[in-house]
Design goal:
It contains 1 helix and no strands. The protein is rod-shaped, with a radius of gyration of 14 Å. The chain has 33 residues and is mostly helical. The N and C termini lie far apart (38 Å).
Length: 33
């Protein structure tokens, strides 16, 4: 199955958004692992 670049871009956008939320939570709660 060939991946469409549009789908990869959408997945990448979701992934970076989640990563930003995770890093934001780690900065908000530094005591939590």
């Amino acid at each position: 199955m060939k991946k469409s670049p549009n789908l990869e871009n959408k997945f990448f956008a979701i992934f970076t958004k989640q990563a930003r939320i995770i890093t934001g939570l780690q900065q908000t709660y530094p005591n939590r692992s």
